[in-house]
Amino acid sequence: MTDSPPPRPVAVAWTGTLPWAVPVAIAGLGLSSDSPAWRAAAAAGMLLAAAAAAVWQVFGRYRRDRELAELAEHLRRGTSSPLPLLPPHEPEPDLRDAVRSVARRARRTDATVVELAEDRDRLFAALEGMSEGVLAVDGAERLLLVNRSATALLRLPLGELKGRRVWEVVRRSAVTDACEAVLGGAGRYEAEFEVGSATLALRADPLPGIASAKGAAGAVLQVRDVTDLRRLESMRRDFVSNVSHELKTPIAAISALAETLLDGPLEGPPIARRFLKDIENHADRLHDLVVDVIRLARVESGRDVFDVRRVPVGPAVEEALRGLRAAAVKAGVQLSSVPPPEAAHVRADADALITILDNLLTNALRHTPAGGRATVEWFPDQVDDRPVIRLRVIDTGEGIPPEHLNRVFQRFHRVDPARSREKGGTGLGLAIVKQMVAVFDGAVAVESEPGRGATFTVTLPAA
After folding, report:
1. 72 located within any domain
2. Least C-beta-crowded within 10 Å: which of 102, 139, 205, 241?
3. pLDDT tens, 267-278?
């Protein structure tokens, strides 16, 4: 019996498709293609290959269906998923391209959503930072938006206001009337109303959008605090009225005196000289008024350029006293100064400091009877740990009633208008003092009692 040769090793070649591996493996066994064993092995291999291919196809279908289901779920939620897509060797390129297209669209949608969210956040931040109040309502008068300033200006309740009816939250008839007018198709609506001591200006406009048959789709309301603006307008009207009155009085007097002189003959040169002296006095009053008006306007508008530097107080006081010495002698009022032991300096403009002292001393002379005194004193002090110099002008005049103390620095305010005009005051001196002191980061105050004189205190930064 001849020994059979040892079996050769089986060589299995994988070409990427399972059925081709079977014939190659069988050929490696050395069997004849006509033998029953070869046919049985081939049949078994083909069955095994078919089973493996079926399993592979079922697995691929399952994986593809799972990915498609995941994609559909993310599309339903409006989010994107890092889909692995289909591997390059999948036999369905149309499906693969569709999945990739949907994934790209999902990524673009995500980017758009993020951009819109950032734009919304920026818009809300801008609205919250506005000093004006902003409210928006829909066609049913439900609040869509209320910013922080609107809550403060209208004194609205805290908490979530969005979705509530405007008339439930805002208890101001002007606001509800504005909503009704705009939503009813009336167009822009404007009004002013009071909230406590504040004056608010309201403007309502139709909200952009598709209008309904009954009117606008909504309304946007803007609320501004115009208290200071209205106060300034009132001050301007008063200022113009007072200037007109102050100009009218001396002009009328000059005109009457001139007509009298022209109509002559007069009884003699002394009377004519007296009339001419009155004309000169009224002309001087007009000149002083115009100068004070111009000076006040320049200080308030910031057009005056001050040379702010280290200024010694003593020489400025002496200069102001020297300029008023003759007027004090004529009025019978004694002028004096009380300097500190050491020289004091302030940060201010030298000419402006002299003007401040001149106006305060002139005011003291006008309101101090003959035999009285007007004294200037100054000394170092501290305000909130900051070194300052306090200047005081003290007189022994008739004093100021309590109800006038808070108004003496207003333009054209006079405690006794007839007497002030008789003495030649313009009513602007103390207002100029207040404005100039403010330029140098200082303050001015007054203390007085009727019949016991007045004390004006100017506080300026020490230098």
Report:
1. yes
2. 241
3. 567 777 777 777
Can you give the pTM of this predicted structure?
0.51
- The number of distinct structural domains making up the chain is 4
In a domain, 5, yes or no: no
Do 237 and 276 sit in the same domain of this protein?
Answer: yes
Q: Which residue has the tokens 């020490």?
A: 462
- Across 359-375, average pLDDT: 91
- pLDDT tens digits, residue range 267-323? 567 777 777 777 777 777 777 777 777 777 777 766 567 888 999 999 999 999 998
Place of tokens 């113009």: 240
Question: Is pLDDT at 18 greater than 60 in this prediction?
Answer: no
Q: What is the mean pLDDT of residues 338-356?
A: 92
CB atoms under 10 Å from CB of 128, counted, come to 11
